[in-house]
Structure formats: C-alpha cells, structure tokens
Design goal:
It is built from three helices and eight strands. By secondary structure, it is of the alpha+beta class.
Length: about 140
C-alpha cells in the first residue's frame, strides 16, 4: 500500500489500472458496493464468476483482488464484512451493483487517525486547486 497515495493531499490518479486489469489472466467486471440504506458508494472493485458465486452463497460482498490475483471476501481478515442485501446487474450485463449493509464500522481498508476504519473508500474530495481534501470526520 502507498501511504502517501492513501493519506496524502497530492492527486496521483492511477490511469493504468484498467489496462492492468485487462491484461490480467482473470476475466472480471467492475462491481460497486453501495450502502443499501443511504445510497453511499463504499467501494468499487472487481468480480469474477467465482466471486459472484461466493457472494450469493455467503450473502456478503466478495470480490476478485486483481492485485493479489485471489478471491477477496471483504471482511475475512478485518471483520468489516459487507452484508449483501441485493445484487443488481446493469443493462449491458458488464457491471454489478452490490447493495450492502456495513456489519460493523466501515468498508475501507484505510483507517482514520483514531484507528477506526473509514466508512467507505471515497473519503477525500478533489479541490478546485487540484489537491485532495479529507471530508469532515474522515481524517
């Protein structure tokens, strides 16, 4: 993990991510995890056929880690599970929407200064000057 990228104020977008995913061995599609009650987008990740099968069976968000090339059961190591409420498929059947409920505190692997997990992965906003700024309560 790149601490400066995750906690810093400098914009360092990874425009190569989709090319890397496309060059990978595993056939995947994007999956958005959205809070079923608030509509907040928590995570955008990737799902292969196995991850989808496991998510439906376990009733929790399961993804395919493109960086580790392995099944990623969200919460298996952190305890921060995302309980699956509903799975939606887009019109072209090339992306998924997991509507979820956070079981404990958060969904992101990053943590606030207090050590508490962040609710979702979208905890900073881009300012007009091109800097990243933490949303209230997310630092």
């Amino acid at each position: 993990m790149n601490k400066e990228k995750e906690e810093g104020s400098k914009l360092e977008l990874d425009f190569n991510k989709l090319a890397q995913v496309a060059a990978g061995k595993e056939a995947v599609l994007p999956a958005v995890a959205q809070d079923a009650d608030t509509g907040e987008v928590l995570i955008v990740a990737y799902v292969n056929a196995l991850a989808l099968q496991e998510a439906l069976k376990r009733k929790v968000a399961v993804f395919w880690s493109t960086s580790r090339n392995e099944l990623w059961i969200k919460g298996a190591t952190s305890g921060e599970f995302l309980d699956l409420v509903e799975t939606r498929v887009n019109c072209e059947q090339n992306s998924l929407l997991y509507q979820v409920r956070i079981r404990q505190v958060g969904a992101c692997h990053t943590k606030k200064a207090s050590g508490e997990p962040r609710r979702g992965c979208y905890y900073r906003k881009l300012t007009p000057t091109g800097e990243l700024e933490f949303l209230p309560g997310q630092a």
